[in-house]
Amino acid sequence: MRTIMVLNAKGGCGKSTLVTNLASYYASKGNSVALADLDEQGSTMQWLEARQDVQPAIQGIAGWDGPVRAPKDADVLLYDTPAAVHGKQLTDLVRRAQTVVIPVLPSPLDIRAAAHFIGDLLTVGRVSRQEVKLAVVANRVRENTRVYHRLYRFLRSLDIPFVGVLRDTQNYIRAAEYGRGIFEMAPSMVAQDLEQWTPVVRWLNSKRSQPE
C-alpha cells in the first residue's frame, strides 16, 4: 500500500487542501483510497462529508480519535496532519509514511518556519537513513510577486526535491465546497491547475519518491 503524508508544523499552509486534492487524484485514477485525518480539527473529514454524492468514494479515517486502520484493499493511504508537531510526535508521524510532502507558503514567516521544520525533519532517523522520501511544494503562489521569488530561491536551495508550484486560486475553494478535488472539476475551468499538478504527481508516481 502506498503511504503519503502531508506535513508541516506551520498551521495554515494548505496541508488539507493538498492532501484532499491528492486523494481525489488517486481516486480518479481508479485506486482504492483511504484518507486519515490526524488533526482533531477534522478538516479532511469535513471535506469527505461534503463529498457524499461524489464518485469515486474515498474512505475517511478519524485518526486523531484512535489508531489508523486502513481497509485491507486500499491502494493508497494519505495522511493529513496537525500543526505544531515536533520531537517524539514528529518521529512517530514520520514512521507511518513512505513519502512526506511539505507545502510552504510565500511569506517570510512561512519561509523561516519551514527552514526550522525541515531542519528538524532531516534529523529524524528514518529520514536520515533514506527510509522516507521528502519533497516540498510551493503553495498558494502568485508568481509575479517578490515574496514568491524569495520562496523559490529558498526551496531551490534545499537538499530535497522541489516538485511543484501551485497557484493561489478560487478553484480550490470551489472544489472543496462540494468535497471535490481539482481533478474532478471541469477540465476547461482548471486547465492551468492541472498543468501545475503534473510534476507533483509525476514525482509521487516515480521510484524517486519511494524508499528502496
Question: Care to describe what's here?
Answer:
It contains 8 helices and 7 strands; from the N terminus they run βαβαββαβααβαβαα. By secondary structure, the chain is an alpha/beta fold. The chain has a 7-stranded parallel beta sheet with strand order 3-2-4-1-5-6-7, sandwiched between helices. Helix 6 links the parallel strand 6 (133-141) and strand 7 (162-167).
Any idea of the CATH topology? Rossmann fold
Major sheet details: 7 strands, parallel
Q: Can you identify the CATH class?
A: Alpha Beta
By secondary-structure content and strand pairing, the structural class works out as alpha/beta
Number of separate domains: 1
Q: What strand order characterises the main sheet?
A: 3-2-4-1-5-6-7
- Helicity, as a percent range: 25-40%
Give the distance, in angstroms, between the N- and C-terminal Cα atoms. 14 Å
CATH homologous superfamily classification: P-loop containing nucleotide triphosphate hydrolases
Strand content: 15-25%
Gyration radius, rounded: 16 Å
Helix count equals 8
Parts with pLDDT < 50 across at least 5 consecutive residues: none
> What is the 3D form?
globular
Spell out the helices and strands N to C.
EHEHEEHEHHEHEHH
Which characteristics define this entry?
212 residues; alpha/beta; 7 strands; 19% strand
Q: Could you give a short description of this structure?
A:
By secondary structure, the protein is an alpha/beta fold. The chain contains 8 helices and 7 strands, in the order E-H-E-H-E-E-H-E-H-H-E-H-E-H-H. Helix content is 39%, strand content 19%.
